[in-house]
Amino acid sequence: RQGGGPGVPTMGRAGVVVRAAAAAIDASIGVAATLLLSSSIGVFFARRAVVTLHIGDPHSLWKGPLPFILGAIGEVVYLMPFIFLLVWILDPLTGATAGKRVFRLRVRRTDGLPASNARRWCRSALQTAGFWGLTLAFLVGSWPLALAATIAGAIALAGCFAAAGPSSLALHDRLSGTACYRFDPR
After folding, report:
1. What tens digit of pLDDT does each residue of 96-146 get?
2. CB atoms within 10 A of CB 40
């Protein structure tokens, strides 16, 4: 822990549970925003996905009952990556997501010094690669991009489990040289 003296905040690396709770708050905000916006912006993404990904076309991968099921909830399914991207992009834009603000978490370098904008954007790009890719894939209609984004998202999600290890750093933190620190006001 760094800091000291009366009135001086202390900081230490945030634990896995606190970071997971912050991420859960961010995900909840993303789901709520998606549900609120699904009847407007979600319709745009769903219509765009139907056209660009050839959903329902006899020569498409999307055949059988799956297009029907996705059609019923498509406004939510196709909008969610975009909204999640917006929720998590707040971290490098404003210094913290809503969940991080609740738990007084900030992204810093692994040595505890402030992270540069380049490091924070690198961390964010690694963390949200799946969301960026899926949003772009739905807009331009690229199956290879959708597949690559799904794989990137799976790697990013699996990389979060590395935070349970001894270094307590997720893959996106290891690659960007960052860590989450919790500030305790004194």
Report:
1. 999 999 999 999 999 999 999 999 999 999 999 988 888 888 778 777 888
2. 10
Quick one: which of 68, 61, 124 has its CA closest to 92?
124
Which residue(s) pair with 109 in the sheet?
178
pTM strictly above 0.70: yes
The 3-class secondary structure across 22-58, one letter per residue, is HHHHHHHHHHHHHHHHCCCHHHHHHHHHHHHCCCCCC
- The number of beta carbons lying within 10 Å of the beta carbon of residue 153 is 20
Q: CA 71, CA 88: separation in Å to the nearest integer?
A: 27
E-only strand ranges, the chain: 10-13, 105-109, 178-184
End-to-end CA distance of the chain: 13
Q: Are 51 and 74 in contact (CB under 8 A)?
A: no
Tell me the residue type at 144.
Answer: P
Nearest to 137 by CA among 53, 58, 70: 53
CA distance 168 to 100: 17
